[in-house]
Amino acid sequence: MIANVQSFRGTELVDPLEDDLAELSADVGIFGFPFDSTCMNRTGTNQGPQGIRQASTNTLGYHYEYDINLDDTYDIVDCGDVEVVPGNAGESLSRAEHLHGSILEADMIPIMLGGNHTVPIAGYRGLGQHAENPGLVFLDTHIDTAEEVAGEKYTHACPVARAIDEAGFEPSNISIIGASGNLNPEYEVEYVKEKNINLYPLDEVIERGPIAVANDAVTAATRDTDALYLDIDVDVLDTGFAPGTGTPSPAGMTSRELLQVLGVVGSAGIDAMSIVETAPIWDDAGITSQIAVRMIMDTLAANATGEANGVGSGTRAARHGYRS
User: CA 30, CA 297: separation in Å to the nearest integer?
Assistant: First the structure.
């Protein structure tokens, strides 16, 4: 674990190799996994964890839409960064899996800051060891069901396949939301059909609305399951909302649509979460890191209240509007 990092929102920075996490009695354990050695497009997501932490310093604990103070609701600790082995995805994932499992064993919600979309494989495996039948809600403009890329099975095109064959996720309990664009190979679409994975393309989000789609996705992911993993690739958002990412997504989801989805998923109760593919090097204004922080805060607020109050969905703030 690399401890010389800025903590998320100034929370306590702990060393999971030295500190007994169970004795901390914390509710949420945040950690970074700054790995991007298997990127196939732009690199830079190894800087994602620190970019998100830096953006988090300008965030209050009180959440207006949810009318809740998260500082009064959660005891959050930052467990630093996984000490990655450059070029060695397998060993890096094993180290992250161990940390993820330690956070779960301490009865905390692990929140992983990536890193490219290889890194949640460690989280999937960690939750798979902790739960008998976990479910997954996966937000991404890419389907990411490749079984391998040029013989490499740990790339950011392969996380869904690894959730199934290494972490024990049933395909019928996996919901992919937001797929669009011309970087989804036909063989990945065929994998979805063969495995009976639930796929909700961006077209469906636009036509039916994010709340209706999210409700269906959560129902599928939680049917006969005992844990829920939420995995968000920031490139599910349009490039106007998330330019700082390795594989930007023109004509992607809006930030409001995404927050409405997260309200539904969070209100169902999550057991683990990851946010990946934030690459601050490609975003001078830092807006991608800022929306990543907002994703965390909205999900935690929804998880605490059991309500879906994503902005634009009829929030507590709207009900508490004031007029002179």
Answer: 12
Residue recorded with tokens 């395909």: 171
Distance of CA 82 to the CA centre of its chain: 17
**Hey, is 272 helix, strand or coil?**
strand
Mean pLDDT, consecutive 10-residue stretches, the chain (324 aa), reads 76 90 94 87 90 96 95 97 93 96 97 95 97 97 86 84 96 97 89 96 97 98 98 96 91 96 98 97 96 98 95 77 67
- d(CA 199, CA 189) in angstroms, rounded, equals 9
Output the CA torsion sign for 88, 91, 97, 98: negative
Torsion angle of the four alpha carbons 134, 155, 104, 17, in this order, in degrees rounded to the nearest 10: 160
Structure tokens at 184: 């989804």
For residue 144, give the nearest of 71, 209, 220, 231 by alpha carbon: 231
Residues 76 and 30: beta-carbon distance below 8 Å:
yes
Reading the block at residue 197, the tokens are 């994975």
249 φ, ψ (degrees, to nearest 5): -125, 90
> Whole-angstrom Cα distance, residue 303 to residue 298?
8
- Spatial CA neighbour of 265 closest among 235, 224, 220: 220
The pLDDT > 70 percentage for the chain reads 97
Report yes or no: 32 and 5 within 8 Å, Cβ to Cβ.
Answer: yes
Place of tokens 């679409």: 189
CA 306 to chain centre: 19
Whole-prediction pTM value? 0.95
Query: CA torsion sign, 298 to 304 to 273 to 1?
Result: positive
Tokens of 88: 């060695």
Neighbouring-strand partners of residue 68: 63
What are the angstrom distances between the C-alpha of 70 and each of 76, 224, 303? 9, 30, 11
Helices and strands, number each (H, E), in the chain: 12, 11
